[in-house]
Amino acid sequence: MTADATAAMVIRPGQLAEAAAILALWRAADATPSVTDHPGDVERILRGGACLLLVAELGGRLIGTVIGGFDGWRGFLYRLAVDPAHRRCGVARRLVAEIERDLRRRGAVRITALVERDHPWATAFWTAVGYRDDAGIARYVRDLGGAEVGRR
Prior knowledge:
The chain is of the alpha+beta class. It has helices at 3-8, 19-28, 39-46, 91-106, 120-128, and strands at residues 10-13, 51-58, 61-70, 75-82, 111-113. Helix 2 (19-28) packs across helix 3.
């Protein structure tokens, strides 16, 4: 992507009608599948509330996403994903900068990015944009149910 194309890129909130395109982008970007990778789960985020899902759009096509959540105390970043054809052009940096602005406006003073350790390109990116590995914190997860969870 050229500098002109980067300038033409738009960062904006995702729309309900884009849930399927967002899921397709995550698959194309090799994001590790999650139990919440279903249209209903994405649509719930897109309806608003504690999370904001931003998309990067270029020429009418989604080329990146990031989810920012705020629990009233801290911010959390999820699903930073960029179409492989548009990587290393500043898309991820622009998405992160915009979601950080939103979280700061909402009162966040600390942000945690969930990053898979076995993706060296991802850990290198987060280090490059000023995040540090918090070796003192372990992440524990529990799925609360089967396919019916979150899809009502």
